[in-house]
Write a structure and sequence with these properties.
The chain has twelve helices and two strands; from the N terminus they run αββααααααααααα. The chain is mostly helical and 282 residues long.
Length: 282
């Protein structure tokens, strides 16, 4: 009897210990699990199954409507209070830099061949040099944009780019070395505008419309990329390579004029300062 009583006593203690374990564990269980008890198996607690909480219903039409209203509000701000000048300047900067660049990347060999550079090896070598200079030109521009400033690194490269393209357009039948040299000069000095495409839109607009401003500038660049890609072969076939390069030179000169008039200097100033119209006089 004593043995049986001891066994019962031990079983009771085990049952109490198990109940205490379940009670302690239930206090740390997440919401939706039973507060006390639950089923036990082999001394372990197991939760009682509960029905899942249904997900919240979201009216997507309302969300889309709010997003459209926000986008229209941001776009309207870019077209008033003087920001329209900055919007046009950033878009033209991007357009004028990317249009000839995409043309040279895509049809570099065709342009060099049309300019009188014969032989697959010569055309390929010239195209590789031009592509390399596009990348190399960014390196000094990253340093000079902080030491010289944003405005000089916009105006001077655009002037040199227009001069290089204009010289290639005016010298009909130029020798191969001159054609390659002109393209190399253009590719190298284009590093300045290529980095300012991202710097200027982020510095010239308030935080609430900054993302929209960058999107508008990128939209201008896509137009330029499409123009350079699809119209260059048509231009070479109809008006010739010199006239095509002349059009690129005029586009670059137009961007130079707009940046001269509306591109402010933002070096060494805070974003709050540069994004305010009245402090920069634009």
């Amino acid at each position: 009897m004593s043995t049986r009583g001891g066994s019962c006593s031990a079983a009771a203690r085990s049952s109490d210990s198990s109940s205490s374990c379940c009670a302690a564990a239930s206090r740390s269980l997440p919401a939706g699990w039973p507060a006390r008890g639950g089923s036990t198996k082999r001394g372990r607690c197991s939760p009682t199954s509960t029905a899942p909480t249904p997900p919240a219903q979201v009216d997507l039409s309302t969300v889309d409507s709010r997003e459209k209203q926000s986008t229209l509000r941001d776009l309207s701000m870019l077209l008033k209070n003087g920001y329209w000048k900055r919007t046009i300047m950033c878009g033209v900067l991007y357009f004028a830099q990317i249009t000839p660049q995409y043309a040279l990347y895509t049809f570099g060999a065709v342009i060099l061949t049309s300019a009188g550079i014969t032989g697959d090896a010569a055309g390929t070598l010239g195209e590789l040099l031009i592509a390399a200079l596009f990348a190399i030109g960014v390196v000094p521009a990253l340093k000079l944009v902080e030491s010289w400033g944003r405005r000089p690194m916009t105006l001077l490269p655009f002037a040199l780019m227009a001069a290089a393209l204009g010289a290639l357009a005016l010298w009909v039948g130029a020798p191969a070395w001159f054609v390659i040299a002109g393209f190399l000069v253009y590719a190298f000095v284009s590093g300045g505008p290529s980095i300012l495409e991202w710097i200027y839109p982020n510095e010239l607009f308030p935080t609430e419309v900054r993302a929209t401003a960058v999107g508008v500038a990128v939209g201008f660049s896509r137009i330029g990329a499409a123009t350079g890609t699809y119209l260059v072969p048509i231009g070479i076939a109809t008006i010739g390579v010199n006239w095509t390069l002349g059009i690129f030179a005029l586009v670059t000169l137009g961007a130079l004029a707009i940046c001269w008039a509306w591109a402010p200097e933002t070096k060494g100033r805070s974003l709050a300062d540069t994004a305010t119209i009245r402090t920069v006089g634009v």
